[in-house]
Amino acid sequence: MAKRDYYEVLGVAKNASEEDIKKAYRKLAMKYHPDRNQGDKAKEAEEKFKEAKEAYEMLSDPKKRAAYDQYGHAGVDPSMGGAGFRGGPEGFGGFAEAFGDIFGDIFGTGGSRRGGPQVYRGSDLSYAMEITLEEAAFGKEAQIRIPSWEDCDTCHGSGARPGTSAKTCGTCHGSGTVHLRQGFFSIQQTCPNCHGSGKVIPDPCPSCGGQGRVKRAKTLEVKIPAGIDEGMRIRSAGNGEPGTNGGPPGDLYIEIRIKKHEIFERDGDDLHCTVPVSITTAILGGTIEVPTLSGRAEIELPEGTQHGKTFRLRGKGIKGVRSAYPGDLYCHIQIETPVKLTEHQRKLVKELDESLKKGGERHSPHAKSWTDRVKDLFK
Ligand SMILES: [Zn+2]
Ligand SMILES: [Zn+2]
Questions:
Q1: Contact between 196 and 190 (Cβ < 8 Å)
Q2: pLDDT tens digits, residue range 280-296?
Q3: Residue 63 CB: number of other CB atoms within 10 A?
Q4: Staple partner for 213: which of 2, 96, 128, 149, CB 3.0–4.6 Å?
Q5: For the CA of 178, the nearest ligand
Q6: CA separation (Å) from 155 to 165, 219, 275?
């Protein structure tokens, strides 16, 4: 019987990604699951599964896939036993093992690591750090206290009371996994007795409660990059919780919170601030001083500056972590109406008012369009 094309077997395109190939294989493995293919169909399902497994083994290996793409079946004939290639599954044992493999994979039980304790990566930790806007803009070096785990002094990490020792788990015989069998089909699971470590501690160490390690605190130097923004996270690899059964530790994530600033409000790389200006300066014009994150700057107010006018100071914002240029500073003018006037001042304002009225609308740039709009509204 002529061999079917591997891509055809898996039902994927010639340019399918590794992920697509894996997905297709999983689907077929489910389809030809022995639970769904009993009696008459069992034999055919097993054949189909073998065919899919072979196709998967070839196409999931970049070298073999390249050879297959170039020479077809002649390039990768499994019966020739190429480098690193294990022959197709033999009999029911092989079939069961193959299913164990893929189902272990699907259910995430860590089935790929066979014959030893089940290792798990430690959890990630997160740390909230509050910094000022200035610190966010210019960066800072900080020291933080974080939890760390050290080998217990009493048991030196074994978790067993001094003078006693851990024993091999009787349930899994030290492998850390158990196989649930259904006919010739088997699923590998983490041993429920030892939780995958392959060992049990009959007499736990009183200092660490059998954990083998104790929680302490340590100081970590953290470099906050200039331009960091609210909610950004800095990853400190390996500073999370320790792994289980010798697995790698998790990571520490430092999450940035920025304190509200007295003057500036941040919007991405830009800054905004409100600048109060006296009514006389607004009328006559003049130079006003405005704050920036890196010192003072000046704005030339033209004569007759209106309330709400915005002045942009280029480059006086923040240079974001991934930005090529700093943002801008927007100064929003807020005109102050004078309060608590003396009699003399009131008199001067009245005089000014009389004088302005004589001049009519030309002193009030917004008044005409405003009265027109009101008229339109009540027409
Ligand atoms: Zn201990
Ligand atoms: Zn066990």
A1: yes
A2: 999 999 999 999 999 99
A3: 12
A4: 149
A5: 2
A6: 10, 25, 65
Distance 210 CA to ligand 1 centre (A): 6
Query: How far away, in angstroms, is 291 Cα from ligand 1 center?
Result: 58
What number is the average pLDDT over the span 178-199? 82
Return the HEC string of 170-197: CCCCCCCEEEEEECCEEEEEECCCCCCC
Q: What is the DSSP string of 229-293?
A: -TT-EEEETT-SPPPBTTPPP--EEEEEEEPPPSS-EEETTEEEEEEEEEHHHHHH-EEEEEEET
Distance (Å) from CA 157 to ligand 1 centroid: 6
Give the distance (Å) from ligand 1 centre to CA of residue 199: 15
Q: Does the pTM exceed 0.85?
A: no
Question: What's the CA-to-centroid distance between 67 and ligand 2, angstroms?
Answer: 42
Nearest ligand by distance to the CA of 174: 2
- Write down the number of H helices and E strands in the chain: 10, 15
Give me ligand 2 centre to Cα 117, in Å.
9
- Per residue in 144-160, pLDDT (tens digit) is 999 888 889 999 888 99
C-alpha 190 to ligand 2 mean position (Å): 8
Q: Count of CB atoms within 10 A of residue 103's CB?
A: 20
* C-alpha of residue 149 to centroid of ligand 1, in Å: 12
How many residues are given for the chain? 379
Angle CA 141–146–148, to nearest 5: 130
Give the distance (Å) from ligand 1 centre to CA of residue 118: 21
141 SS3 class: strand
Longest CA span, the chain: 113
Instruction: Check if the beta carbon of residue 336 is closer than 8 Å to that of residue 277.
Output: yes
Six token digits for residue 330: 């927007």
